[in-house]
Amino acid sequence: MLRAFLVESILDSKMGSVEQQPDNLLVNVLQFLRSSTLFNDLLISAQEEAQKTSLRISELKKGVQNGLGSAGWDRKLRNAIYHFLQSQPKSMTNGILGSPEQLKEPLTYVRKAQLAWEKKILKSLNSMCTELTIPLARRRPEREQKDMMVRWTELGVDGPAFMRGSSGICRGIDLSQIRPVYAPKDFLEVVVSLQNPNCNSCGNVGSFDVPWGLIQVPMKVKTLNELRLQYSDMAITQCQTGVDDLSDIPAELFDNERTKLGRKVLSSKHAPISREFSKKGCPVSMRAELWSQILGVELDQVDHLYYEQLKAYVLQHDLLVDNLLYKDVKLTATNDDQYFVFEDFLYQVLLPFSRDTVVLKHFTQNSATPPKSYIRGKLGVEEFAVTYPPNGVIPFHGFAMYVAPMCYLYDDVVQLYFVFRKMYMHFFFRLHSVSSHPQGIVSLSLLFEHLLQAEEPELFYHLKQVGCQPLKIAFKWLMRAFSGFLASDQVLLLWDRVLAYDSLEILPVLAVAIFSFRKTNLMRVTTFNAAEAVLADLFTLQVLPLLQLALFSK
Amino acid sequence: MNDKPLSCTIKPAVCVTADTKGFHSGCKIVDISFPSIVNPEVTDENVEIGEIRFQNFYVAFLTVKAKIKLTEDTPREGPQDQGWRVALRRFPLMPDPHGETGAQDSFCLTRKHFSCDLSNIVSVRLILQQPAPVWKEFKMEELKLFRSSNGVRVPPLPTWVTEDDKTKVGKKELENENTGVVAEKNSRAEVGVPDIDSLSASLQQLWALAEEASSNQTEESLGRYEVEGCYDINLLAYS
Question: What positions belong to coiled-coil segments (chain A) (predicted)?
């Protein structure tokens, strides 16, 4: 019975996209299933089925199979295999192998650039520590732990490092001295300076070696036509949630049917179906559930315990990263009238996130490597080497905005936490590491430049002439996946598509659409600041009509 | 299994040119010859290639030609047959020659990629092609030939996966551990006391089950990040 499910599910979800040896794949899937708790559960329920008195011995096998099938094991296994395959890197094609380092990032010069960038971040963190004479991490005294536990749901008031005690000592670190380690602008510089040493240069502007845009890496990105095919479900002829379900359109036309179908999809609890349904957007009332299904977040008691454990870790140790996160929330979400109400919620997600070692797993696919350190007094002793922060991710200016829009979806902080963690480990990490991956920020930036050049050559040329490279404005949008730049409901509609199509390529498409939409005004600007002003306020924009315009209007 | 690469001489790549004025043909040739001395590892002087491993550096297509030793029984391909056989024709290493994808990947080409059997080989010629003028250089790094394909050994699948359903019927094996064991127990209850052989057989199965369970330990970590409860850190290490 397992076998039938396995083979079918693999064929289902792969559809020939990966030419990896099927045997090898099967072995991996089996290995994964066997080591998961699911396998144990399956055995237990099989045993229960077999012990039913209604079962005749001659039909034991069939009976057990039917019993398991009707208990929903079919769906559970399919989902498990689907999510396992989703988490596998897609590069394992014909005859390609390599060291783990190479699998993270095959191109040497990109790897070097990422390493240099990491070193810069480390130095900046270290110098912050030295200047402020604070350690990266220290154990909180018992009393402080208790105090923080009491303030857990209202950390926004005084911050994580604050200590208000009967003794009257205030140990709060002066937050004005804590500054974000890096901002999108700094990272853009790194991305722009990326250059292939094996690239010929003959000095022709506009050719491969001296591009019109800022990105100088000759990577292959999709053309508009390829994107049209990829996003064909978003065509203007097809009704979309986010356009056709607005309140001024009669519900009979689209909304009623859509909701009905949505309920059916939800009850089937099958990730690929939810994903397919979401291609036309998630109805507001169903989004939370659909996203959880697509990402495979199904909370059980262990997950709740796990979150509690992370919380305990937060109380135990005081990290400098906490202050960075705290500062970031204060600078971004708290200043945003859409998100300030979620301030405390954000801490309850971000602080445990920094302690979560499961996040380290994504580094097998990420070109970045987690920072390393040694326990105080044991410098250089390998047994005392630790990653810092425990999840290996150093937040940048705007990191909290990856979480903020999702606060609208989940009122349970644990659910929010696990959905965010999945989103980060599957998508968001690619937006702030240098890599040649087709979903990486470098490729996305290049895709933006190519599309804008192809679709709005006049506009691109004009902006370039007045010294305002479009990417300089669009990069922060891409890096934050538009969170904080658009109205929150629009961000969620956009992320629906990211999840449904399992691709971040929609981000540059939207960026191009926005430039295109504001073209008339942009054509009149003569300075960078003026151009920035034209594109400063995007809160009135409707994402879907814009995307449709950019993808399908020509 | 022979894990050592075949001893061979890899000559430096020769760029194919039409004239001497730095014309970029985008084609290079690498000749590989095998020492004529009897290779101690190869008993029958039969040079056989089962696997080619290398790290690509901006080569877009790879063609592998092999010259085989012509003997009486070798089927000839025409009267002028010199013994050259094409094992691989324009195998794409980079999906798009102008783009970076695949440019620095490591490849492992095995028998299933080759169109003919590579045995009794005198020499091998690799033809590297890079039609795109974008790149300054293209070459192959860490080129190694192996006698047998033992690059990535895949553990064999459990029989219950590969076996067809039909062949399984009637077999009282441990296809699905649970149902199998239960079935056996039930059938024994019918006949009374089992004989020692079948008892020991099922005990062995039990042992196998236990072994299997212990080998299928979960890789789930405990999530500890501190060392002996301590996580006091001053500065980050530059490694």
Answer: none
ipTM for the whole complex = 0.76
* Same structural domain, B185 and B130: no
Cβ of B164 under 8 Å from any chain A Cβ? no
* B26 and B67 both lie in a single domain: yes
- Evaluate whether A473 touches A533 at the Cβ level (below 8 Å): no
Instruction: Give chain B's domain count.
Output: 2
Given B112, B146, B180, the domain boundary residue is B146
Chain A segment 389-408 residues within 8 A of B by beta carbon are 390
**Domain of B62: which CATH number?**
2.60.120
pLDDT score recorded for residue A208: 56
Q: What is the largest CA-CA distance in chain A?
A: 85
The answer to whether residues B60 and B120 belong to one domain is yes
Same structural domain, B142 and B197: no
Express each pLDDT in A443-473 by its tens digit: 999 999 999 999 999 999 999 999 999 999 9
Considering the domain architecture, whether residues B90 and B64 belong to the same structural domain is answered as yes
A436 touches chain B (CB under 8 A): yes
Same domain, B104 and B16: yes
Interface membership of B167 toward A (CB under 8 Å)? no
Q: What is the nearest CA distance from B44 to chain A, expressed in angstroms?
A: 29
B127 falls within a domain:
yes
For residue A389, the surrounding DSSP H or E stretch is none
Same domain, B93 and B46: yes
Q: SS3 string of chain B? A: CCCCCCCCEECCCEECCCCCCCCCCCEEEEEEECCCCCCCCCCCCCCCCCEEEEEEECCCEEEEEEEECCCCCCCCCCCCCCCEEEEEEEEECCCCCCCCCCCCCEEEEECCCCCCCCCCEEEEEEEEECCCCCECCCEEEEEEEECCCCCCCCCCCCHHHHCCHHHHCCCCCCCCHHHHHHHHHHHHHHHCCCCHHHHHHHHHHHHHHHHHHHHCCCCCCCCCCCECCECCECCEECC
Q: Which fold has domain A224-297+427-552?
A: Cyclin A; domain 1 (1.10.472)
Partner A, chain B 48-107, Cβ-Cβ below 8 Å: 55, 57-58, 95-96, 98-107
Last residue of a domain, one of B102, B123, B146: B146
Cα separation, B147 vs B118, whole angstroms: 10
* Closest by Cβ to B104, choosing from A34, A108, A306: A108
Residue B38 lies in a domain: yes
Q: Which residues of B touch A34 (CB under 8 A)?
A: 216
pLDDT, residue B217, reads: 64
How confident is residue A112, by pLDDT bands cut at 50, 70 and 90? very high
**Are the beta carbons of A107 and B58 separated by less than 8 Å?**
no
Asked, for residue B232, whether it belongs to a domain, the answer is no
Residues B21-46: tens digit of each pLDDT: 666 788 999 998 887 654 555 445 67
Nearest beta carbon to residue A386 from set B110, B135, B225:
B225
Which of the residues B135, B220, B231, B239 would you substitute to probe the A interface, choosing the one with the greatest number of A C-beta atoms within 10 Å?
A: B231
Same domain, B127 and B201: no
Residue with tokens 């599957």: A426
Please state the domain extents for chain A.
2-97, 224-297+427-552
pLDDT at A432 exceeding the cut of 70: yes
The 10s digit of each residue's pLDDT in A314-341 is 999 989 999 899 999 999 998 889 999 9
Residue range of the domain that includes B139 = 9-146
pLDDT attached to residue B151: 47
Asked whether the predicted pLDDT for residue B169 surpasses 60, the reply is no
Determine, yes or no, domain membership for B224.
no
